[in-house]
């Protein structure tokens, strides 16, 4: 008995450690083996051993049962933990997203505020007696806003225009949590603190003499009062709006004056206000000043103002474009060409940062006609058909089509153009296109008539006509010489605005050749090449004259140079092909004709010459 108890105790001791934790399974197995062996010789011990084994079997069943339950509970707990982790991760991600959006929103609001340059009109104050006359603070402010919008819409300029807004329409009814402030108020506060908005306001009161006094003021602007009767309220509002616009955006106001042919006013205004402008605004104002001077005075002065604008803002592409034009009109064609190359370099090539429309005059000088027309049409599309250049931009398309020897398209375009017959410049440019068409047909009497009409109609502002019709008077002189009107041709040369330009010199050479002065003509051609060695027109005129006099080798050399400096101009290629065809080099002539067709695909004479060369090359 004592032995059996000892065996049981051995088993129990072996199963438990001193701290109550189960030992390894191997210890129970050894103890059980010893007890089983001893039970073989002691029935009582055998009985107790059997009872012990039964207890162990019951314990095992219970352990297995509890293990399954605990396993299921553990799985359920793991699922709950995994779900809780997912919910926590989603909440964390959501909070992080909201925080990120809030930070981005604040950054956007701050960026918008810092870079904002809006002109904001707030409700005007009215004296109490005016309320009974269907006048309110918003109505007066809206009238000022309408006038500001009208001025801006009729200002054609490359100057960036400020968005116009009114205070009550800008309000956004979204509340910021726990502050009671609307998003609009937050934006307005940030713009007032960090931005460059111009807030316009004022008041309308009755005067003792039963008239009205409208006072307008704005951020950084000197208040001004306008007086009138109640019947003159619209006039007062217009005067107030014009004053505010001129003070808030001087460059755009000068552009408005230029657009409406108020050049003298533009010059006076620019001179008086340039000192109070800075940076890009000053550059733009200088540019508008130069446009006004170009239309009324010295091209040298206009070029100097454009150069000053470029120095103030090297990325003012409008000023660079005007610098090209005014430098050429001042008699420095080569300098104008260099100015165009510098703009291209500054813009990072072409296409680049400079809008293509700003290469218009440079393309005209180099006879890059397709690019000239493409940029013009793109500019019209982006400005609702108005264009950014001053003057009658309708003239560009038929001019280019005429120079590409496409009379059908030019006449169709001219017939549908928005020509204002009340303006001399529009009448002059219509005659200019007809001059080009007559020259293309070798109809010299018609060309002479159209040229004289164009020349005489253009005696007003020269800057506008000269931009669209360069060397007009000098080409007219060539037409007059062909028509047998020598004295009138000389007179036309004398009337030229820029008689020393490379184009006018080339046309003088043509006239000298027509008069039989071949030595004098070659001297003039050489002078034309010398003043503008990087432009193609003098090489072209000289090459054609050499071919006419039988110097085919010399003609080829000059026409090759014309093509080198005007690679997109069909005329030198066509003339070069003609020279090669006369030299019996039909295959080479065919190659020149094919290349020329890329730039003047509808030129009938070119198509005929190409067909003849193709037959000879077989």
SS class? mainly alpha
Task: Give the N-to-C terminal Cα separation.
Answer: 133 Å
Tell me which oligomeric state these chains represent.
single chain
Q: What is the CATH class of the domain at 119-248?
A: Alpha Beta
Q: How does the overall form come out from the CA principal axes?
A: flat
Rg (C-alpha, Å): 45 Å
Number of helices: 28
Total strand segments: 6
Residue share in β-strands: 5-15%
Low-confidence stretches: 1-25, 170-177
Helix content: 55-70%
Mean pLDDT: 85
CATH fold label of the domain at 119-248? Rossmann fold
CATH architecture of the domain at 119-248: 3-Layer(aba) Sandwich
How would a textbook summarize the main sheet? 6 strands, mixed
The CATH homology group name of the domain at 119-248: TolB, N-terminal domain
